[in-house]
Amino acid sequence: MQSGHAVYQGEVGHLRLLPREHGFSYPLAYYWLDSAALTRTALAHNGIQLERFGALSYRRKDYLTGASNIADAVRDKVKLLGGEKLISQIYLLTPLANWGLYFSPITLYYCYDAQNNFCYLLAEVTNTPWNERHYYLQKIQPEQQHYQHQKAFHVSPFNPMDMQYHWQISSPDDSLLCSIRNTQADKHIFSAWITLKRHSLTKQWRKRWLIRQPWQNVQVLLRIYWHALKLLVKRIPVHAHPKTKDTNA
């Protein structure tokens, strides 16, 4: 278990194989936050504002609703989704609010038991432009990295609902991997992934990153629409939102 606040830097990538190929990858930084140390002092030591405007800000409203304490809210959601183990520690993997804007296609909550074993991954998935949220719970098994289930949430208008998700999840260490492969009738249609390396949240790291990516959340949002336009040009079929109420929001 990687304790304390830190940052994971690397890339996010998408690859569509059918009905036509389309792919991309971009630099990305996600912040690793210890839910037990979300205090003004602890965050400020790492250059993060608490409930204030700034280059990097943690704001409770940006995350899972429920209890005022994010750790309690995660425990409640895990239990609601069938988790039975006692969770001792929770870490957030999040882009944070950036100059007042929070935007995250996926936020991950890494849950550990009293023996420091990685036991649950709670994935908070959002869709654009509907701005809805859905939660997938993966019950982590020792020595297992692959998990699969039926797709249950409309994310991209270019992917239908009748798909299977195949997750690859590593236990975070000096590196971190999380990927999702979409299949339909046993055909590999689409993949998305983040591959990241851990860094200390030093002043020097923050300065270099914010010069390189001053508005990461804005850039991510713009790229979503830019690649949506490219998919339309390539005549990738569009699937309407099913309009059903999500029971796991």
Please write out the topology.
Elements: E1 6-16, E2 22-34, H1 40-45, E3 49-50, E4 57-58, H2 70-80, E5 89-94, E6 106-112, E7 118-126, E8 133-139, E9 146-150, E10 164-169, E11 175-184, E12 187-199, H3 203-212, H4 216-233
Parallel strand pairs: 3-4
Antiparallel strand pairs: 1-2, 1-12, 2-5, 5-6, 6-7, 7-8, 9-10, 10-11, 11-12
Q: Going across the biggest sheet, name each strand in turn.
A: 8-7-6-5-2-1-12-11-10-9
Low-pLDDT sequence parts? none
Total count of domains: 1
Strand content: 35-45%
Rounded average pLDDT: 96
Q: CA-to-CA gap between the ends?
A: 28 Å
Overview of this structure, please?
The mean pLDDT is 96. The strands form two sheets. This protein has a ten-stranded antiparallel sheet with strand order 8-7-6-5-2-1-12-11-10-9, covered by helices on one side. It is globular, with a radius of gyration of 18 Å. The protein is built from four helices and twelve strands. The protein is of the alpha+beta class. The protein has helices at 40-45, 70-80, 203-212, 216-233, and strands at 6-16, 22-34, 49-50, 57-58, 89-94, 106-112, 118-126, 133-139, 146-150, 164-169, 175-184, 187-199.
